UniProtKB/TrEMBL annotation:
Histidine kinase domain ranges (all copies): 217-423
Entry keyword annotation includes Repeat: no
Listed InterPro entries: HAMP_dom (IPR003660), HATPase_C_sf (IPR036890), HATPase_dom (IPR003594), His_kinase_dom (IPR005467), HisK_dim/P_dom (IPR003661), HisK_dim/P_sf (IPR036097), Sig_transdc_His_kin-like_C (IPR004358), TCS_sensor_his_kinase (IPR050428)
UniProt GO cellular component terms: plasma membrane
Name of the protein in its database record: histidine kinase
Top-level division of the source organism's lineage: Bacteria
Amino acid sequence: MTSRLPFSQRIVTAFVLMTVLVSGSFSLGIVGVVHFVEDQLITKELHGKLSLVLHEDIKAGRAPRLDARTRFFASNSAVHPIPERFAEFSEGLTEIEDENEAAYVYLTEINGVRYVLLQEQQEFEDREEILFSVVLAGFLLSIVCAWGLGAIMARQVMEPVARLAGQVRHRDQLATRTAPLALDYADDEIGHLAAAFDSTLGQLRRSIERERLFTSDVSHELRTPLMVISTSCELLLENQLHDGQREQIKRIARAARDMNDLVRTFLMLARSGPVDGTEAETVTLADVAREQAELWEAAIHAKGLDFELIDEGTDKAGHNPTFLRTVMANLLRNALHYTAQGTVRLVLEHDGFRIEDTGMGIPAHEQERIFQPFVRGSAARGEGLGLGLSLVKRICEHNGWNISSTSDQETGTCFKVSFTPSRAVVYRQALEDK
């Protein structure tokens, strides 16, 4: 399972956990060794004292010669009888520690006689408590030091990573004159990562440069003949023509204008900026809607369909004419192609527009893929390549618009374009700006 903690916090956590494990083991070892040595030394000491009392003092008929902290008891002695509280003690060393007393009790049995040696240990317990307090303080101090050292190490380790991430995130990295990132880093893992990014970025720059050159070539090679076609149509319309010829020339002129707008659209998307001052030119939604209605109404009626233009509160803001025309035209063309009978509606709203049709609808399993390039519906008609809705999606993302679709195979399809970006769009743009 992938950890969600930042890498720097994981470094600090690793330092602290390692210290807890090592320092905790040492601390527990110290406590265990102290208790073991205590038992061994005290047992040996009290056994020696008891042997001395039995073989020298008791055997000679003298009173036991012991210091003030040590007392002697025997089961066969009327002078030093064994207290009842020691009656159930087993042989060997027993430690007594309560609120009233801290002592060692050493008990042995020789020839059926039980002997007890009691030695007070309050002073030793006080020193032992001090020792354990020092061990605990050292354990806690080691954790604090590990946390501080881990934080310092994490900062030093992550500094080049954070610096590299900032350089990679910088929007000017695609500039052709940007110095290679690997020069700023040592020949280590971070340096290798920077070198790999330099290599990938170089390939990306070359790809973008090829695309820019291609779009420039398209601009020159296509727009010039389109201008010739448009000019020729204008000159032809000045001649005496019958209605059929005049209508055909107008169709050619409209197609040339549409082609010119499409070329302009691709150029603007590829360059991520205005082309030939188009950014200064703006149109309202109502103007484009009326224009597109005039262009498409005849074709829609020719197919036996009804067309409705409904204004529910028109957006008054100015928009890029090329982008708005391309989006609306592609959606109207899509509605025309996929509607066999019924109505096509262009509905204007206060923050966008929607295009509704009573066509065959889009199957549920295809709705998530309709905005992908080269994807056509299972009921596709005509010779399209499946790029219309993909282009619409790209334009909407380029302008921060939001496009959504709802479809039912019984009632038809509705595409809604909102000039107010959705939360997802706002979040994505915020990430790109960082």
